From TrEMBL:
The lineage of its organism: Bacteria, Pseudomonadati, Verrucomicrobiota, Verrucomicrobiia, Verrucomicrobiales. Involved in cell wall formation. Catalyzes the final step in the synthesis of UDP-N-acetylmuramoyl-pentapeptide, the precursor of murein. This is UDP-N-acetylmuramoyl-tripeptide--D-alanyl-D-alanine ligase. Residues 319-443 form the Mur ligase C-terminal domain. Keywords: ATP-binding, Cell cycle, Cell division, Cell shape, Cell wall biogenesis/degradation, Cytoplasm, Ligase, Nucleotide-binding, Peptidoglycan synthesis. Belongs to the MurCDEF family. MurF subfamily. It comes from Oceaniferula flava. GO terms for biological process: cell division; cell wall organization; peptidoglycan biosynthetic process; regulation of cell shape.
Length: 458
């Protein structure tokens, strides 16, 4: 981050400075004592099962130059570093991030949506790095804690920031927009993720629309033509709108081909000469995500050729349609997370992959979280969809039993296992060279454990 004085930080966030400003500049902010270094500010946060205030001594030991706290520890005089005392340390962190964002001369791209946020962030970052210095969300730092940390990780040399904005409940996107002040907003789609807390897709759309409303008049909203709520989102912004899609929109894919190694298409932007894109990942939904990234690059003045080069070079975050071969069996790792829409997209991706000589397409599915009263119906639906696509369906875990039930109502090519080890053993005996096997489930399903047990990578 841009070096900041302790006194300036205290003034910006309305903190009481306890101790003396040492004159040392703050160059990084962290909530984790394990990631501290020279010039670090340690922010002690409180949660249901932790309290960072218990680790202030460890923070100083690990190199913290200053502490942001909402309660003074008994040993404060022994710490020998200044303390910024506020009423609420989380709010202090957020105020600091908002103030820091306003100091920066950068373009900010905010990304939200029910599915595809991280993949779209990966595509967008790769595109923009063809021309700009880019700061992008790392890992899952996309919530009320993670986004401020992402903002504060921005360097003076960065020109564009690409930040994910995640949510679980209503009212969470708007505060993130207030901190990030996005110039460009990307809404990947409106699906059923987190429907347990928002009640309906309409409720989800209204929450995602917070990003559209936050954009300035000279900003740009980028949406996909295939989203059921595209008109709803467009109506809720005063910014310029760019619509993307497969053979639709001003930024579109034409002549799409999906093959063994990935997806290829002509990137067409109105008024420009098309360029061929060769993605190293399959899936029509991934093509949609790449088009959103292309629109962002074009909005920032990049050429179609530069955009295509960035898309071709994209490496997606682990657990998102990563492919490897184990004993001649193609394994597709899409284990990072799951909801009904992303599972449906993964099923379509597997269905598009060619098989020969009697080989099989096998989908191994775990439970999908945060569906509330919709859980049974949605698990039944994805099981039925997989069966209708003529896939061998493997449901793993007691909470995934409805997937098996939905599939077995359509086909006899479905099995269910309560225990991951049993599922892995069955896969070892069932799968043969040439088969395609895709793994997917919500984070708590830990489907990567089944995958690694069945197909260990050496």
């Amino acid at each position: 981050m841009k070096p900041l004085s302790i006194t300036d930080i205290a003034s910006a966030i309305g903190a009481e400075l306890v101790g003396t400003d040492t004159g040392r500049l703050i160059r990084a902010v962290s909530t984790d004592t394990r990631s501290l270094g020279e010039g670090s500010l340690f922010v002690a946060l409180r949660g249901d099962n932790f309290d960072g205030h218990h680790f202030v001594s460890k923070a100083v030991e690990n190199g913290a130059e200053c502490l942001l706290l909402d309660a003074l520890p008994e040993e404060v005089e022994d710490l020998k570093v200044p303390v910024l005392l506020v009423k609420n340390s989380l709010y202090g962190l957020q105020r600091l991030a908002k103030w820091y964002r306003d100091l920066l001369d950068i373009n900010v791209i905010g990304i939200t949506g029910s599915n595809g946020k991280t993949s779209t962030k990966d595509f967008t970052s790769s595109v923009l790095r063809q021309k700009f210095q880019v700061n992008a969300t790392k890992g899952n730092l996309n919530n009320h804690i993670g986004l401020p940390l992402s903002v504060l990780a921005t360097k003076e040399t960065d020109q564009v920031c690409v930040w994910e904005m995640g949510m679980n409940h209503a009212g969470e996107i708007a505060p993130l927009c207030d901190i990030a002040s996005p110039d460009i907003g990307i809404i990947t789609n409106v699906g059923t993720a987190h429907i347990e807390h928002l009640g309906s897709r309409e409720g989800i759309a209204e929450e995602k629309a917070s990003l559209a409303r936050a954009l300035p008049e000279n900003g740009t909203l980028i949406v996909t033509a295939s989203c059921d709520f595209v008109d709803y989102l467009i109506e809720r912004t005063t910014a310029k709108v760019v619509v993307t899609g497969n053979c639709r929109g001003s930024v579109r894919a034409e002549n799409l081909q999906i093959n063994e190694s990935g997806s290829s298409f002509d990137l067409c932007i109105e008024g420009e000469v098309p360029a061929r894109v060769e993605l190293n990942v399959s899936g029509r939904h991934m093509v949609n995500n790449s088009l959103l990234a292309a629109a962002a690059g074009f909005t920032l003045g990049m050429t179609v050729e530069e955009i295509a080069a960035g898309l071709n070079a994209t490496q997606l975050t682990t657990g998102r349609l990563r492919r490897f071969v184990s004993n001649g069996i193609t394994v597709i790792d899409d284990t990072y997370n799951a909801n009904p829409d992303s599972v449906a997209a993964a099923i379509e991706t597997l269905t598009d992959l060619p098989v020969h000589n009697g080989n099989r397409r096998i989908v191994v599915l775990g439970m999908m979280a945060e569906l509330g009263v919709h859980a049974d119906a949605e698990h039944l639906r994805v099981g039925q969809l997989a069966a209708e696509k003529d896939l061998q369906v493997v449901a793993v875990g007691a909470k995934a039993a409805k997937i098996y039930e939905g599939a077995s109502a359509v086909t006899d090519k479905a099995v269910s296992f309560d225990e991951p080890v049993a599922a892995a053993e069955w896969l070892k005996s069932f799968c043969k060279e040439g088969d395609r096997v895709l793994f997917k489930g919500s984070r708590m399903a830990a489907m990567e454990n089944v995958m690694n047990e069945a197909f260990p990578q050496t």
